[in-house]
């Protein structure tokens, strides 16, 4: 009878999520110390980052001359995050609030949106039943 050996590759079983973006201040410090002649190994120990992270920051700086994050592509949101959170609070405090009321609230703050946009944003928060 043949023996079958099963094993998991550490590369396949690794569920890595997205990491947080490093601050521009930290990246600037890394470039400053790199400019003073410190190598990758000293930098990764000093800032407690991986060697590849330090290398990627330096590589980006050499290629572009900056370490600042470029603006993301895509259409900007019609309803800013702070207004959307305020809308959700208003609806949770008063469930009888209509999308027309919310439309007036946003218009007073200089944000002109259609009621379907308001409803779509509320549906993402699992809030339903806003009528005109």
Automatic annotation (TrEMBL):
InterPro entries attached here?
Homeodomain-like_sf (IPR009057), HTH_SB (IPR057667), Transposase_Tc1-like (IPR002492), WH-like_DNA-bd_sf (IPR036388)
Q: Which Pfam families match?
A: HTH_SB, HTH_Tnp_Tc3_2
The residues covered by the Sleeping Beauty transposase HTH domain are 16-67
Q: Which residues form the Transposase Tc1-like domain?
A: 85-131
> What name has this protein been given in UniProt?
Transposase Tc1-like domain-containing protein
